[in-house]
Amino acid sequence: MTDSTPSAALREAALVSKAWPYEEARKLLKRYEKGAPAKGHVLFETGYGPSGLPHIGTFNEVLRTTMVRQAYQELSDIPTRLIAFSDDMDGLRKVPDNVPNQDMLREHLGKPLTKIPDPFGKFESFAHHNNAMLREFLDRFGFDYDFRSSTEAYEGGQFDEALKDILRHYDGIMGIMLPTLRKERQATYSPVLPISPTSGIVLQVPVEVVDAEAGLIRFADTSVPGVETITQSILGGKAKLQWKVDWAMRWVALGVDYEMSGKDLIDSVVQSSKIARELGARPPEGFNYEMFLDEKGEKISKSKGNGLTLEQWLTYGPDESLAFYAYREPKKAKQLHMGVIPRAVDEYWQFRGNYPNQSIEQKLGNPVHHIHGGVLPEGELPVTFGLLLNLVGVMGDASKEQVWGYLSNYVPDASPAKYPELDRLIGHALAYHRDFVAPTLKRRKPIDNEAAALRALDARLAEMPADASAEDIQNEVYAIGKEEAFGFASLRDWFKALYETLLGAEQGPRMGSFIALYGIANSRRLIAEALA
Q1: The pTM is what?
Q2: CATH superfamily ID and name for 8-178+242-289
Q3: Structural contact between residues 154 and 254, judged by C-beta atoms closer than 8 angstroms
């Protein structure tokens, strides 16, 4: 988040910008067109269910919400706050596939997540472990947020008055929810989930309101054999609310003005909004984003642990590339797997390179404006990440220092001190090649016409100076591919042959740039190996 005051020109352009963060921010401008709310600030919220390890989807919701917050700050002088809320009082319904000590977790099914031992043995509960992971990666990206725990809010009495209000409007809430449920579910449904004083399980049982002002209900504790109905308070952490009712109660109790959510929660937003209105409040603004999919096209799940983890992305690509991927087309389903990282890296740098020379209207639609809050870091990238990967691919088991040695053929005064971001990218490229690319590389033997063309390329390179430009080399590559004597149906067939015989891949870089980077002498050795 930037502290700089937006210029009049920027604010004027932002008022009509079609970039999605500005479109969302203008909803909040309209919400408070007469001035700041009574609480003195506009409140943004993101939610997290710590029943499984946090994944990139969790991070992206905070990132996208932060982008809307930043856009709103460019349009309004009203202060803002962001709450990252963890629903850690929810009962554990199933054991995640990607955690240890699953038998132990099964013994605690149904209990609040903060009352279940940490299967990793590091924190006081499973929820505390997952909350810590969430906060760790939010802090890594410098998000400005307040963390809130559902357990602390319920047990600390912060929601007590709102819970009484739920009981006061019990019949109205039931009238909203029952028509959305199957008949068998209607018979057992209750907006309130009492916690058994004996077993500690979050109960899914019908309840009777005894005294709304005192917060008393009556229910049967089905988790304990032979126990008849008991009367118990719902205050101070002795109960929690069903998901949709809980969401609405939280909006009202905290005064939430904006919260986005996944497309799978559209129905929940509708019902929770009705409940918020029943409680006399206005639901927050927001929009529904599409879900990330794994390589098989399946929705990413905390319990399955499919798709990429945040740690995996940040091993193979820099922070900004992940933010770039999250920004683009939030209402379009996108696959999230290793193969998308290199393109995200190079597209980020392409947009970043364009930014300084763009008009203010173009800048506001540029993803990097929202990634960096309008204040871009200095620095440039003299080679693409894709080209780096190809270089590392032919070098094999290389070190950073060796890669920098090759870069000196192509980049004047190449050094980590001059290009620190390139230095970091080399580390990502080495890791990506080692873990993902190297196992797939397989150079094939050239067929007759391809071998003849490679020999011609070698002869042309032998005649060129060692410092020949990438453009001059590319012209020679083109010329060979166009010669009828070599029998290529199209230039694409020639380039495919180069990639498969020299690099061991189906796709590759602009060959002139690659040869200039790798060096003419080294490239000739590569051709000799292919011909041998």
Answers
A1: 0.89
A2: HUPs (3.40.50.620)
A3: no
Domain 448-531 has CATH 1.10.10.350: yes
Cα separations in angstroms, 141 against 63, 103, 122, 322, 435: 9, 35, 23, 11, 25
Instruction: Say which amino acid occupies 526.
Output: L
Bridge partners, residue 48, by sequence? 86
H or E stretch covering 492:
helix 491-498
pLDDT digits 0-9 by tens, 415-469:
999 999 999 999 999 999 999 888 888 899 999 999 999 999 999 999 999 999 9
Identify the H or E element spanning 43.
strand 42-48
Single-letter amino acid, residue 236: G
Answer yes or no: same fold for 8-178+242-289 and 448-531.
no
Q: Strands 334-335, 292-293: parallel, antiparallel or unpaired by DSSP?
A: parallel
Question: Quick one: which of 43, 27, 10, 67 has its CA closest to 327?
Answer: 67
Reported as type and span, the H/E element at residue 208 is: strand 207-211
Q: How many alpha carbons fall within 13 Å on the CB side of residue 409?
A: 23
Q: Render 98-114 in DSSP notation, one character per residue.
A: TSS-HHHHHTTTTSBGG
The pLDDT of 179-202, averaged and rounded, is 95
pLDDT > 60? residue 32: yes
Q: Which amino acid is at 528?
A: A
Distance from C-alpha of 240 to C-alpha of 91, rounded to nearest angstrom: 10
Could you give the C-alpha distances from 407 to 110, 186, 246, 421, 422, in angstroms and in order? 58, 68, 57, 14, 10
Whether residue 391 contacts residue 514, with contact meaning beta carbons closer than 8 Å, is answered with yes
What CA–CA distance (Å, rounded) separates 241 from 247? Answer: 9
Which residues are bridge partners to 262 per DSSP? 289
pLDDT tens, position by position, 340-396? 999 999 999 999 999 999 999 999 999 999 999 999 999 899 999 999 999 998 888
Where are the extended beta strands (E) located within 55-159?
80-86, 146-149
Nearest to 85 by CA among 203, 253, 276, 200: 253
Q: What does the block give as tokens for 256?
A: 């939430």
More confident residue, 452 or 505: 452
Strand-pair partners of 209: 217
Q: Are 429 and 385 in contact (CB under 8 A)?
A: yes
Q: C-alpha angle 139/142/146, rounded to 5°?
A: 65
Report domain extents, the chain.
Answer: 8-178+242-289, 293-371, 385-440, 448-531
- Condensed to tens digits (0 to 9), the pLDDT of residues 219-248 reads 999 998 887 899 999 999 999 999 999 999
